[in-house]
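Bug #2210: token dump truncated for ATP-binding protein?
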Amino acid sequence: MSDALHTSVQGTQGPLHTGSGNLYNHNHHHNYFAGPPADAPGRRTPRSIAEDQLLWLWRRFVPPAGLDGARRHLHDDSTVLLDGAPGSGRTSAARVLLHELRREAGSFHELLPDEEDVSLRDPGLVGDGDRLLLDLSDADEALWVGVRQDLSSLRRNALERGARLVVVLPRHGSRTLPEDLNQYRVQVVRPQERDVLLRHLRMDGVPLDDDTRTLPVLSRFLRSEPPMREIAGLADLVRRARDAARAGEGFADWCGRALAALDDQGPQVAKKVAGLGKGPQRALLLSAAMLHGAHPDVVHRGAASLLTEVDHPESDRPLLEHPDLAARLEEISAGPDANGLVRFDELDHDTAVRAHFWDHMPDLREPLCTWVGRLVDLEVPKFAQEDRDRLAERLAEQYLRTGHPGGLASFVERWTAPDAAPRRLRAAARALRCGLLDERHGRFLRGKVYDWAKNGRLGEGLASVLVEVCTEVIAVRHPDQAVVRLHHLARRERQGSRARNALLGLVEEDHRLRRFLLHRLALALPGGARATDLDLFLQAADPRVLTDPGTRVRALLEEAPVRGWLATGWAVVLRRCPRRTWEPHAQRWLHTACTAGDHDGLLLDVLVAAAAPQGDLFAALYATARSGQRSAPGGPERGAAVTDRLLEKISAAQGLRPAPPPPRAPHQSQRPFRGTYP
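Reproduced locally. Full output below:
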């Protein structure tokens, strides 16, 4: 498997990336942005989607030599550093190793040392029991030098948290490691190409026979030792050739068509376009390529709309003298398939046609962008939503293929203008999603999303698109970045609470992200409390979650830095908010203390520390405890006991009596968490 085998899956049925570079899969129909809203109950979480990505890879994975040794190191030492030549399967092996631990470890988390000033020394990067991947396969020398000195610190932090760490070493020259880490290095060796191809074909449901292993055309291809991404791509082409097979075709025919599709079809397309001298013919060719797989009526309407967009003069011939659509499609080597949908005769010919028009007719690019935006809005019979989605993706494909992600960002901005219809917004989200999943340009576009999110004059249309892509795309592999962007969007939300709810939904499913958000809020609140930040703090500081370790080693409340951030946040809430606002939340803390066992004293300590800077708040806090005694869990007696204990801590804070001994945290013997968060 290729070092660059980064799966880009948005669900168990989504497009799949099995190599470096771009992925544009338009052969499956998915409605990522038509499902339930980000805050809807029962929606699939980014964590579950990320696990599905790993599951997809695991099912198609062919183990390289050396994997067993890596597995032993990860089990015994909680750390392994994978080395090997490009194409040996290091990155795929790293992901599979971490996937195998899913039942005994926490969530999968990919570290990004080269984005947003992240330091690998920061303890906040690691959650209890995390499965950590640090992929340096594409790191340059400068990045490697900077990361190498932090690896020992990262490993110590991972060990303290009970996490498992897999590092994929860079492919360049010397990879000198710190002496204490060299013992965890494992060399992996590229698996057999034929085994990889057959594994993919089997998982794609392609029937195999005895001739498969000896087919000469396949043997010639595999002997060239192509990158693993090309082998995976060939398997997908074989599957697609099988799906579109003519009567009497077999495996050899599918392979022949698939291998032909891998060849450069550019010269063939250039010759075809040159032979189509008239505007309507070329418009139909481009429309068929952009709407490949759509109904003939939709392709025809698209061609007519494109002619209007470029101000092509209308024909003065009578309608009955026009050639029929079937004949016109035949002129461009296309026609309806068995399902009545327009397809070219050659596999992947539509991709080559789109590339030709984009590369060789640059004056057409701007009208093409406008045409796509208008076309997705049209109410055309038999124009399915998946056709509109693929149309937007295919336009984004051209910007990404030619290295212009900024152009993609520009038309996303235009498509989300204040008067944009819902279909246009969805198209913008689909296009932006393509860019965010692109291995080369995803970083640039995540940065663009960050800039947009911080814009105080952000339009509602673009804001709604950003909430979607943060929740459904960025959060899958880069959850910390999704939290930061959603936080900025929530602060600037003028209508509704979509960004706020999406943010709270993310931290609800991940303790590490909740800790991350609490730290951000603790830093922001004292400097100028925004209403949104106050509300987010009160929601994120849920005492029941803070005292529940779940599958973690310890509860968040047991961490001293977390208690400090909670006290900071509560101090601002008590000082800035009216009592009617904070009292129900304080009551919830006090009631949780009634049933929190060993954590009751820690909950009370946070509230007392928050009220201490202003002594007059002690009376209000005590009165709140008294008023909630009757409704306390465990009955009035338990409520009175918690109130008495609160009074003891208040008296100690005022110097009226000796301080009671600090509560012993259930895991006090563990080393306490120290550090800050980005």
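Output looks complete on our side. The longest strand covers residues 79-83. Marking as cannot-reproduce; reopen if the truncation happens again.
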